[in-house]
From TrEMBL:
Membrane-topology descriptor: Multi-pass membrane protein
Principal place of residence: membrane
Recorded GO MF terms: acetate transmembrane transporter activity; symporter activity
Pfam families associated with the record: SSF
Source organism of the structure: Sphingomonas zeae
GO annotation, cellular component aspect: plasma membrane
Protein name stated in the entry: Cation/acetate symporter ActP
Range of residues in the leader sequence: 1-22
Superkingdom of this protein's organism: Bacteria
Transmembrane annotation, as ranges: 32-56, 77-100, 106-124, 150-171, 183-202, 214-234, 279-303, 315-341, 373-401, 422-441, 447-471, 478-502, 514-532
CDD domains according to UniProt: SLC5sbd_u4
Amino acid sequence: MRRGPLALAASLTLLPISGAHAHAIGPAVQQATNWTAIGMFAAFVALTLAITRWAARRTRTVSDFYTAGGGITGFQNGLAIAGDFMSAASFLGISAQIYADGYDGLIYSIGFLVGWPILLFLMAERLRNLGRFTFADVASFRFAQTPVRMVAACSTLLVVLFYLIAQMVGAGQLIRLLFGLPYGYAVVIVGVLMTMYVLFGGMTATTWVQIVKAMMLLGAASFMAIAVLARFGFSPEALFARAVEVKTALAALAGAGPDEAVAKGRAIMGPGGFIKDPVSAISIGAALMFGTAGLPHILMRFFTVPNAKAARSSVLWATGWIGYFYILTFVIGFGAIVLVATDPGFLEADGALRGGSNMAAIHLAQAVGGNLFLGFISAVAFATILAVVAGLTLSGASAVSHDLYATVIKKGQADSASELRVSRVTVFVLAVVAILLGILFEKQNVAFMVSLAFALAASANFPVLLLSLLWSGCTTRGVVAGGLVGLLTALVLTILSPAIWVTVLGHAAPIFPYGSPTIFSMPLAFLTIWLVSITDRSGRAAVDKAGYPAQRIRSETGIGASGALDH
């Protein structure tokens, strides 16, 4: 059951990438209604709506709406960031990949995780000290505001759009399988709840929904991992040995010879040929690592804390929770090999998983906890999608209202009330667009959208942020040219890649043969920023370079940085 890298990307995003496993979830069949799951989901919705009502009373200004007034603690923000990354797609997709290929299933989780040190050591403190609401505040700090913010807003909206489509399609497919609800109903429910969270509660409601969801998911995954290990005397070695035996037996049943069956069984404990060529491996790894440091809804979370110390603390806590979660998925995946692959009740006649290849963790939940725990896991999976789409929507709304409306159109003269009004109108529009596109793309393979979101973030946002923060010679023209080159190159190469050119458009062979464009588009963006900046002799370039010392002092010391609001 070996899948290509983009099909796996559809299974994984987090984030955070997340919820884009829709195409791989399985056949479009409607299951019997799971009333336990629906009851638990209703309880979660009631809790989160109560949080939204509480948050609405505290959301009076644009700072409240965008960043919760900067009053979220480092621990709380770290848990919320982890909630953004620990998506249902990560939970289902990584465990399913481990179920299929063993050790190889960790390739994406490791790629996501190693992006966090970049944020911690290079960006977290500087982002908090320089920015206020969006990452464009940082990218444009010493540059001409209009062109830089327009490029940043376009990049943000494209990343958010592809993520949102993937989330909505993922929600429809997942809930049709788990809850027995029709696809369209599931998409509308997610869209309506997402709108309510963001429209009324802003970042405060979104943060606390993510915190509650993260705690639920961590608790559920911990229970599953402990329940699996308990069956083997809490010996991972015994679990892995049994998994090798099961895979060997399955290979023998499939007609493999004794030596071949043993080889296939042992293969799950080592890296295999999951990604066929080194170029795709490096490119996908670069997208995961550097895309994490360029995702606008993740970067926005650093403005919700009161100071740079809390920003660093956020990354440390988030890294810990995310790392712990990925360890749990490793145990869950191997537990599914042992407990799910050997139970005919979870399998189709041909040996495939009931409900599709990404249902390994869901079936394991029933195996270790019965129908009650299955209902809880189902509710947590849906809750995860709700939390992620809320964060994405808020990020897109801030790009329109703060970067485009308040700064570009109104030249910084917009009052708080009008900016907040534009934000809420944008939330409503994004929700309607997301619902419509979610329904429109029901039958499409949306794997490329998640891959493209990470590639766009790594190719456009990350080079712009890094060089604007750390290079004194960077200029407005360089940032704008490099951001656009990275954005367009990643977009075009992805369209020409196998994921779209062959799978979606039906051509015989791709023009661009690799699974991800990042290894080409990201260096090209860096090169363009450098080349245009060093050849820029304009008066604006002199102003840009002269502004670097002041920017560095503020980024390193926090002098002049915006603080938290008192409520």
